[in-house]
Amino acid sequence: MRKISYPRIDCHDVYLTCLQSVANTEQGRGYKIKLTAISPLVKAEWDAYEDRTGSTDLHLFQFCAHGNKNQRIINDVTKHELMTLYTEYMVKGRESARNIYDILRSSSNGLCPLCGIGFVSTLDHYLPKARYPVFSVNPKNLIPACDTCNKGKGSSTYSTKESQPLNPYFSSDIFYTQDWLKARVIKSRPLSFEFYVDPPDDWSPVDKQRVRNHFTDFNIGEKYSIHASLFLDSINSIINMIRSSGGTPELVSEQFRNSANNEMNNTLLRAMYFSVSADLEICGGEFL
To answer: Origin, by domain of life (predicted)?
Structure first.
């Protein structure tokens, strides 16, 4: 999991920029007039979104029903019309609208901030557009994501503070600078790793539950356990190298502990290295 900086994009310009992508046809002009008319109401909702990010109050927004694309969201503007603003006029829009999409997508340098290991391939709607369509093109609601994180969360709705997963733009630094992701090594041949959540004792119940939900929503445990297998040869090589030169299990443990401390908090390698360093049998080469 990685915290990222929100790009310098003025939220209030994005809505009208996407509308500029609408074709100059009779149908397109009607759509554009209809959605332009509600822009002050959209702006008010987006202002409320910005206010609520800092206090983790995005759950206060009312979500719409599942399905029913013709449900009216603002005045006579439907869910489908608001979602189309993203799918047709941002993702497939003209250069100015598509450029916003591309800037957001590249804001994490290609690595998914939601899981920390996947490659960014799309944008994830923090508040899903199918349930909160008024935010379909709100850039602060659009987070670079890998395909599995984007699809894994689905169209979740939130009813409490603790139900909200981490937001890499706006969540508190504590989620990224204090360890809550841990691993236990399974003594088998080959070794395997089980990842779990263990937040600091002094965190609030809300913060503890948020990381548990994030871990579950994005299937972090399974993703990390599979990905961990890529590093087994490297771990075995380090153990063999130190042991073959006369190093003790304690020295191997120290090496992995130092390596863990050089990794960012709540990353796969940090959790793996700490779990190996804590087991002197493994550090002694018992399970190579």
So the answer is: Bacteria
The DSSP string of 159-214 is -SSTTS---TTTS-THHHHS--EEEEEE-SSS-EEEEEE---TTS-HHHHHHHHHH
What number is the average pLDDT over the span 168-179? 96
Chain segment 205-239, per-residue pLDDT in tens: 999 999 999 999 999 999 999 999 999 999 999 99
Q: Return the amino acid letter for 253.
A: S
The pairs formed by 54-60 with CB atoms below 8 angstroms and a separation of 24 or more are 54/170, 56/161, 56/164, 56/206, 56/210, 57/161, 58/126, 58/127, 58/158, 58/164, 59/158, 59/159, 59/160, 59/161, 59/163, 59/164
State how far the alpha carbon of 270 is from the alpha carbons of 209, 227, 263, in Å.
Answer: 22, 13, 5
Mean pLDDT over each residue of the chain, to the nearest integer: 94
Biggest CA-to-CA distance, the chain: 81
- Predicted structure pTM score: 0.90
Q: How far is CA 56 from CA 32, 48, 50, 142, 238, in A?
A: 33, 12, 10, 16, 43
What's the helix, strand, coil split of the chain in %, to 5? 50, 10, 40
- Amino acid identity of 109? N
- The predicted structure's pLDDT at residue 154: 66
